[in-house]
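Team,

Forwarding the record for the chain on the shared tracking sheet. I've put the sequence and predicted structure together so nobody has to dig through attachments.
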Amino acid sequence: MSLIREPVAPTRCACQHRPAAGKLRLTVAKKNIDVRHHAQYNEQEQDKRASTLQQLFLPTLSAVDAHSHNDGYHSHPVQPAAGGVGHIAQLHDHMDECDLVARLSITPGGEGRSVAALLDRAHIKELTRNGVADVTAAQGGGTFRLHSTRPGRITGVEFLAGTASSELEY
């Protein structure tokens, strides 16, 4: 009797059988644009640092297809090879050095009005501790629910429309 087994295909979410209905983004960006004569931070250095951190911690989350699912959207980002990505819990330490933030956004239909929220240190702590974290968008715009089934990684993102869901244009 052989102990060799066929690899088991990963379970696919039902939403992945539908065409993309929007774009989800999790990006590292400048917190503020400083228009003073002598800005506190070098903007080119901030842009360079944001790009580096994006590639190190969130390389596959800069623009992910979002599929409609129940009352919202699901995204399942491609997971980079093991060892190729920094642990998400370290992201904010690096962002704080250059006054950067992590922004979640979804654009239904790929165009039109976006809904956005800031991903803060408390959300990441909750995600690494529980495997799930809810990030609420401003003004009742909805909730981004992050999932982590692998240590230090974001393996899924849901967007649940809120009270302003009628404003989401297709």
